[in-house]
Amino acid sequence: QVQLVESGGGLVQAGGSLRLSCAASGRIFSINDMGWYRQAPGKQRELVATITSGGTTTYVDSVKGRFTISRDNAKNTVYLQMNSLKPEDTAVYYCNALRVAYYSGLNLRVGDYWGQGTQVTVSS
Fold it and tell me: I need a labelling partner for 51 at 20 to 30 A (CA). Which of 11, 73, 112, 115 fits?
């Protein structure tokens, strides 16, 4: 009923920039928090950044000052602008949407959803 589709990953040299997008589709009424996570090979998935429906943001310390999360509520889309990329930013990046209220038939339901992931590779 709800899908998150990410785009914008790729290969970039250290110091470069990428912009990730994640669009939620379905009969969506509202989305509470949205965020980006990443998982590097052999490591656990970690939270990168979150943004509330009101625009309040949080970041993991390692990306503060380099990454910016934003969202377009009208488009149910969250973005991650990544600047000054480092090789240690290499990972699969996943978007997440919490407490998505959507219509299933005539019923309003709530769920949490993940995107399929997009690879970001930063070469040194």
Answer: 11
